[in-house]
UniProtKB/TrEMBL annotation:
It comes from Agromyces neolithicus. The gene is purB. Gene3D superfamilies: Fumarase/aspartase (C-terminal domain), Fumarase/aspartase (Central domain), Fumarase/aspartase (N-terminal domain). Pathway: Purine metabolism; AMP biosynthesis via de novo pathway; AMP from IMP: step 2/2; Purine metabolism; IMP biosynthesis via de novo pathway; 5-amino-1-(5-phospho-D-ribosyl)imidazole-4-carboxamide from 5-amino-1-(5-phospho-D-ribosyl)imidazole-4-carboxylate: step 2/2. InterPro entries: Fumarase/histidase_N, Fumarate_lyase_CS, Fumarate_lyase_fam, Fumarate_lyase_N, L-Aspartase-like, PurB_bact, PurB_C. Residues 329-449 form the Adenylosuccinate lyase PurB C-terminal domain. This is Adenylosuccinate lyase. Catalyzes two reactions in de novo purine nucleotide biosynthesis. Catalyzes the breakdown of 5-aminoimidazole- (N-succinylocarboxamide) ribotide (SAICAR or 2-[5-amino-1-(5-phospho-beta-D-ribosyl)imidazole-4-carboxamido]succinate) to 5-aminoimidazole-4-carboxamide ribotide (AICAR or 5-amino-1-(5-phospho-beta-D-ribosyl)imidazole-4-carboxamide) and fumarate, and of adenylosuccinate (ADS or N(6)-(1,2-dicarboxyethyl)-AMP) to adenosine monophosphate (AMP) and fumarate. Keywords: Lyase, Purine biosynthesis. One of its GO terms (molecular function) is lyase activity. Residues 63-308 form the Fumarate lyase N-terminal domain. CDD domains: PurB.
Length: 460
């Protein structure tokens, strides 16, 4: 048997690349290396702007040329870095040599020794990861997450008045509306979106053990913490003043826990929609030419929501592991975080793939009002709650002497099918005020939805 040509090992880079490829702009090895080059170049410019060691600020055209290295970073640069790393066996050192080559190309050899000056690899790495994760979240993941919330919001408003039988513990329960039930998910997900949007992305730039030791020896009169803070904040990050060799990664643990929380709420949404489809409440709109089953031609399977479930579980598994692993580093530094962080894109990729499936799935379902109405009409016993509650109010008001209304309705309805006729006969025989009796006689399962429709207006 001949060997296959090189193949992607992960389905994220194979079968599902079209859905998640945008994350590669940020969370790939190439995206990380581009960010590293960006940090190294900005550190060069920052040092010369301050005139360190007799240097002068670079002219605007030379700064622009250096920054153009980042803007134009492409396949040739990726290949060059790979070749350098094959020799250095050190990814960040390869980036340093790459930047030095660009300085030579631009006639800036005189500042070459300021490349990676007083920096440990983690000074470059932590800032680069913060930049790439921030941009991946803000430019890719959050817009897709918001698009799913918007699609749900639209469905919630559209179906706000669509009465449906609720099911608690899987059993018929007090009716609601489909719009209100979807609005619950909109509210939950919107809270998490706001938390993710408010996430803090921290960075450190303080040397081998976070003490600025090399910095102070080289330039004892410089206020290095101020320089560090200004530099980190110039990259759009928040400065962490107290670290070991590594930035402590607490912000990453917080962010990944939030994304994992979002995954789990989305998983709940997917299982609920799947169940509504199973019950017939939602019809699936067949895609032209699609096959539901290889042997049963009639099938239209809820594959969007099933695919989402699996990928949400995979995403949370990775992100939960990262959140647990990254907050621990032995003494002043160990390398477990280096290997772990290379899987950040995997965690986000599975979540993004799930979001894509949910968004598409929500556009491929249609509410079947007739099924909802039939379901409600077959379960008049759910009005037992309304009847016993009204009786209790009438007892308190002095218009009834019925003892233990709950037990009375339990005897009538528990585990039984009770129709409209039986309930009307029961209500007519009750010792309650006429107004209360007329309200109960007018009630149907379809109208026993409280203010469910109005609650949709509570959405953000």
């Amino acid at each position: 048997m001949t060997s296959l040509p090189p193949q992607p090992l992960s389905p994220l880079d194979g079968r599902y690349r079209s859905a998640v490829g945008s994350l590669g702009e940020h969370l790939s090895e190439a995206g990380l290396n581009r960010a590293r080059v960006h940090v190294e170049i900005e550190w060069l410019i920052a040092q010369t702007d301050r005139g360190f060691f007799g240097t002068s600020p670079l002219p605007a055209n030379q700064k622009a040329a250096l920054r153009q290295v980042v803007t134009d970073f492409g396949q040739a640069d990726i290949d060059e870095l790979a070749a350098l790393e094959a020799t250095t066996r050190h990814d960040v050192k390869a980036v340093e040599y790459y930047v030095r080559r660009r300085l030579d190309d631009l006639g800036l050899e005189h500042i070459a020794e300021l490349t990676h000056f007083a920096a440990t690899s983690e000074d470059i790495n932590n800032l680069s990861y913060a930049i790439t994760v921030r941009d991946a979240v803000q430019q890719v993941w959050l817009p897709k997450f918001r698009a799913v919330i918007a699609a749900l919001h639209e469905l919630a408003v559209e179906h706000r008045d669509a009465a449906m039988l609720s099911r608690t513990h899987g059993q018929p329960a007090t009716p609601s509306t489909m719009g209100k039930e979807l609005a619950v998910f909109v509210y939950r997900l919107s809270r998490i979106a706001a938390q993710v949007e408010a996430s803090e992305y921290l960075g450190k730039f303080s040397g081998a053990t976070g003490t600025f030791s090399a910095h102070v020896v080289a330039a004892p009169d410089v206020s290095w913490p101020s320089v560090s803070q200004e530099f980190v904040e110039s990259l759009g990050l928040s400065w962490n003043p107290l670290t070991t060799q590594i930035e402590s990664h607490d912000w990453q643990a917080e962010l990944y826990s939030r994304i994992s929380h979002a995954n789990r709420v989305l998983h709940n949404l997917a299982t609920d929609i799947w169940t509504y489809i199973s019950l017939g409440a939602f019809r699936q709109i067949p895609a032209p030419g699609a096959t539901g089953s290889s042997t049963m031609p009639h099938k239209v399977n809820p594959i969007r929501f099933e695919n989402a479930e699996a990928n949400l579980e995979l995403s949370s598994a990775v992100l939960d592991s990262l959140a647990a692993t990254l907050v621990t580093s032995r003494l002043q530094r160990d390398l477990t975080d280096s290997s772990a962080q290379r899987n950040i894109g995997v965690g986000f990729g599975h979540s993004l793939l799930a979001l894509d499936n949910i968004q598409r799935g929500l556009g491929e379902i249609d509410l079947d009002l007739a099924v909802l109405a039939t379901d409600l009409d077959a379960n008049w016993e759910v009005l037992g709650e309304a009847i016993q509650t009204v009786i209790r109010a009438e007892v308190v008001a002095g218009r009834s002497t019925i003892a233990d209304p709950y037990a009375m309705l339990k005897e009538l309805t528990r585990g039984k099918r009770v129709g409209a006729t039986e309930l009307a006969e029961f209500v007519n025989g009750l010792e309650i005020g006429d107004d209360a009796k007329q309200r109960l006689l007018a009630l149907t399962p379809a109208t026993y939805t409280g203010i469910a429709s109005g609650l949709v207006d509570r959405l953000p």
